[in-house]
Amino acid sequence: MNMNDIERALRQLRLSGIHATLETRLMQAQASQQPFLETFWAILQDELDRRRTRLNERRFKQSRLDERLTLQDFDWRFNPKLPRQACFDLYTLKFVAEGGNALIIGKPGTGKSHVAKAIAYQATLQGYHVRYLEADAELARYALAAHDEQQRMLRECTEPDLLVLDDLFLARRISDPSAELLQTMVHRRYKLRRSIVVTSNRVIQDWGKYLGDNTMATTILDRLMHHAAMLEFEGKSYRLKEAAARIARGASHDA
Ligand SMILES: Nc1ncnc2c1ncn2[C@@H]1O[C@H](COP(=O)(O)OP(=O)(O)OP(=O)(O)O)[C@@H](O)[C@H]1O
Ligand SMILES: [Mg+2]
C-alpha cells in the first residue's frame, strides 16, 4: 500500500475533503506525534467542512442571490429610526419555520433590499431552499414567456421555503399577466404556508394602482399580511451618502 492506493480509494469513495488535506494531516501527525484518534477526527472534520462549504455554495447559486450580504455589515447609526429589532427577529429565520411573511416598505436607498438579501443569504446557510427575484423584471419576463415556461416559473416561485420579491412596483404599473402571476404566487404560497419577503418603496395603499386592480391588491395583501411582520424603513438614502462621498473624494483629488 502506498499513497497512490490511498488516493485512488479516496477518489472512489468521493472523499475529496480528505484527499485535499491528507498530506498536511500526515505531516501534522508525524510532527506532533498525535494520537491516532485525534488525527482521524481532524481528517473527518476536513471532509465534513468541504461538504458543508459545497452545499452552501449550491444553495447560494440556487437562490440566484447576486451578493452575500449580512446584517454585520449594515450601519445602524446611519438611519437610527429603522426597525432594527424586527430586522434581527427576521434574521433568526423563525418566521420561515412558521411560514410567516415580511413586508419591508419605505424610502429609497434606506437598506430594504440589503436587509432582505441578508435574510435570504442567512436562510441558505441554515439549509433552506431560497429563491430571490428582482420582482418587476421577473414578473415582466413571465408575461412574455410561453405557456410551458410560465408553468416552470410558477413552480420555481412556489417550491422554495423562502421567496424574496425585491423592489416590487419599482417600475410603477405592472402588466395584467404579471399581476396575475403575483396573485397566483401569493395564493399558492399562502395555502402551503411558505414564506415571502417583499420589499417595495410603494406604500401598500397604492398597490391597487400599480396592479391596475384594487380587488386584486386586497386579496394579495390580505394573504401576505395575515402572518406577517410589517417593517417601515424611514430615513435618508445611503446611495446619496455614497454618491456625496464619491463627489467629495473627487473634489479633494482635483484640489
Ligand atoms: N444602513 C446601511 N448601512 C450600510 N449599507 C447600506 C445601508 N443602507 C443602505 N446601504 C447600502 O446602500 C445601497 C442601497 O440600499 P438598498 O438597495 O438596500 O436600498 P433600498 O431600500 O432597497 O432602496 P430602493 O427602494 O431604491 O430599492 C446598497 O448597496 C446597500 O447595501
Ligand atoms: Mg431595493
Search tags:
11% strand, 2 domains, binds adenosine-5'-triphosphate, five-stranded parallel beta sheet, Rossmann fold, 255 residues, binds magnesium ion
Descriptive report:
This protein is of the alpha/beta class. The protein has two domains: about 5-65, no CATH class; about 85-240, P-loop containing nucleotide triphosphate hydrolases (Rossmann fold, 3-Layer(aba) Sandwich), CATH 3.40.50. The protein has helices at about 5-10, 15-30, 35-65, 85-90, 95, 110-125, 135-145, 145-160, 175-190, 205-210, 215-225, 240-255; strands spanning about 100-105, 130-135, 160-165, 195-200, 230-235. Strands 2-3-4-1-5 form a five-stranded parallel sheet, with helices on both faces. Helix 9 (about 175-190) links the parallel strand 3 and strand 4. Helix 7 (about 135-145) crosses helix 9 and helix 9 (about 175-190) runs parallel beside helix 11. The structure holds adenosine-5'-triphosphate and magnesium ion. Magnesium ion binds near residues 112 and 199.
Number of domains: 2
Query: Low-confidence runs (pLDDT<50, min 5 residues)?
Result: none
Span of the ends, CA to CA: 71 Å
Bound molecules: adenosine-5'-triphosphate, magnesium ion
What is the C-level CATH assignment of the largest domain? Alpha Beta
Q: Quick one: CATH superfamily of the largest domain? A: P-loop containing nucleotide triphosphate hydrolases
| Principal-axes shape call | globular
Please outline the major beta sheet. Answer: 5 strands, parallel
What's the number of extended β-strand segments?
Answer: 5
Task: Order the strands across the largest sheet as they lie in space.
Answer: 2-3-4-1-5
Strand content: 5-15%
What sequence of helices (H) and strands (E) makes up the elements? HHHHHEHEHHEHEHHEH
Secondary structure tally, helices: 12
Radius of gyration, taken over Cα atoms and rounded to an integer in Å:
24 Å
Helix content: 55-70%
The secondary-structure class comes to alpha/beta
Mean pLDDT: 94
